[in-house]
Amino acid sequence: MRTYDKSQKLNNVCYEIRGPVTQEAARMEQAGQQVLKLNIGNPAPFGFSCPPDILQAMQEGLRLGQGYTDSKGLPAARAAVAGYCKHKGIAGVTMEDVYIGNGVSELILMSMQALLDSGDEILIPAPDYPLWTAAATLAGGRAVHYLCDEASGWLPDTQDIRRKITPRTKGIVLINPNNPTGALYPSGLLQDIAAIAREKGLILFSDEIYDRLVMDGLKHTSIAALAPEVFCVTFGGLSKSHRVAGFRCGWMCLSGDRSGMGGYIDGLNLLSSMRLCAGVPAQYMVEKALSNPDQPDPDLLPGGRIYEQRACVVQALRAIPGVSVVQPQAAFYIFPRLDGRFNIQDDERFALDLLREKQVLIVAGSGFNWPDADHFRIVYLPECDVLRQGVEKIGDFLQGYRQ
Ligand code: PLP
Q1: Residue 56 is part of which domain span?
Q2: Within this chain, do residues 319 and 284 fall inside the same structural domain, yes or no?
Q3: With a cut of 0.90, is the ipTM above it?
Q4: Atom 12 in ligand 1: residue holding the nearest Cα
Q5: How many Å apart are CA 234 and CA 254, to the nearest integer?
Q6: Distance between CA 257 and CA 228 in Å, rounded?
Q7: Staple partner for 177: which of 32, 108, 298, 330, CB 3.0–4.6 Å?
Q8: pLDDT of residue 262
Q9: Please, are residues 334 and 306 in contact by the beta-carbon 8 Å criterion?
């Protein structure tokens, strides 16, 4: 019989967040076990819901948005994103520079497909949100990882960025605020990275999907606002900030010096037109969702769920001997470190062993292209008591665990 393997294009493409350990969790659930899922940043199942006015806009979109839109998206949605860019200090973005997608995910894939030829390199953080590495690899490029430094609060190591630039490097990816570390990047660091991009003629790709999920009175800065002359592609969306991950709505916008970028922009336009357009009803949410950009999100203020859950998870993790954490400043992820006593050689096996023994699902650090087997990611969206129980189980498990 003829057999079919996956295409060779997929040989080095990994996406562990929904990988084999998650499939094992699904199998356990089907067999009647209860699994505590701390693996996916999906707010709605944890009781976070979309603001009613946004939901209403989506409902109107069901009536109004039955046909295709322009490939780049509904004019009103694109104009709203251009206005949001202006509000964030990103100069010169018009609606022609804005592309609406079925989530940021689709646009990440598109941005890499349109750019990379075989052997082209793109600098991506380690740890990263692994779709970036997967998208660059699928596009035929080479993901080159620069280190983020845990000792400095998980900030990108600019020396490492410089060291890893070669004549094949085409761009630098930033994830700010960061998934999986929850780090928020200060302006000085962004200026340093922008200076590198300017000097070397590189494109900046900035994934800012968590820009409104910032705590402690800190403010998010878009690198594009600090680098008006560097060609930047900035990504944002409603999945996290407006708790509508299921509706699939994100955008990317182009800013900075477009000279020399005509071919790349043609490529983006071609790919955008090939998928016809993003889902239209969801696009009707954008204008409303961006109408009040400075309104604080109560879940991120003291007393709010995400803020308090961060405190719970940090405290519970720090109580485990051999575990340390950098307190996140944004988003809803934490990336704890396991010290040498556990002697973990294979962190995916660690995640699987934990799942089987304690029914707690986390994602191993290697799933985020972290080079050592000594970290894992927790999504701290569940309520405090659930988080405490989950982390206690991790602590119990670790006490006896050696590889
Ligand atoms: N970028 C980052 C950093 C993410 O964490 C995620 C989802 O977890 C995405 C992009 C994809 O988001 P979307 O739902 O808009 O596709």
Answers
A1: 52-289
A2: no
A3: yes
A4: 104
A5: 7
A6: 7
A7: 330
A8: 97
A9: no
